[in-house]
Amino acid sequence: xxxxxxxYFLLFGVGIVAGFINVIAGGGSxxxxxLMMFIGIPPAVANATNRVAVLLQSISGVAGFKSKGVxxxxxxxxLSISALIGAVIGTQxxxxxxxxxxxKSISVFMLILxxxxxLFTKHHYKPEEALLKGKNLIFSIIIFFFIxxxxxxxxxxxxxxxxxxxxxxxxxxxxxxxSIKMFVNVVYTAIALIIFAYQxxxxxxxxxxxxxxxxxxxxxxxRWSVNTESKTLKYVTLGVFVILAxxxxxx
Length: 251
Hints:
Layout: H1 5-24, H2 29-38, H3 43-67, H4 74-96, H5 99-119, H6 134-153, H7 158-168, H8 174-199, H9 204-224, H10 231-250
Helix pairs in contact: 1-2, 1-9, 2-3, 2-10, 3-8, 3-9, 4-6, 4-8, 5-10, 6-7, 7-8
């Protein structure tokens, strides 16, 4: 399908916002998916097309963290493999589910994650306090399998879940949490995109416009967030999520 030029610019602008939010917290796709459906892209196609932007944005985020000296660890690789396996299941579920039910489920997940985020308080631990071995590692690997299922299914809001797991189970600080989140996203989103591309028509032009915005937003945010955090942005984001969830449910 061909979209009006103004819609591509709109996708680029929303992509910047989504990419910025995805790095420092998560949930940027909750802005993107409703917009794509509001401009006429079917739910399944929107979900698949969004992965183009998520993958490229995550690569940009990883590069941004690396430029600030935050590198990939063996711990990140373990979690990524677990999430990848889960994403295969979640992606197939997203393809097979009734599309009206899928659209409704986005609204439900948005509201659930809003309440989850309000209750969830970030912990800021020193690097030497991190718990990356033994039972903490095993528990995280199991949790990331289920996070992968959710990420493969919808992607939106998966950042909240990853941050909760890494800070709650492994006691990681905010910067390392965000860098691992970006790397895990790269790995499991790549396999999800391959599966989607094989079974569903992807709107590549829309995806690339969105990706351009996401990459710019992620690059800015990954460098800015190394030394900064913003509570105000989190609560503004949550307010918008509630509005979009209600609008999408009745759309």
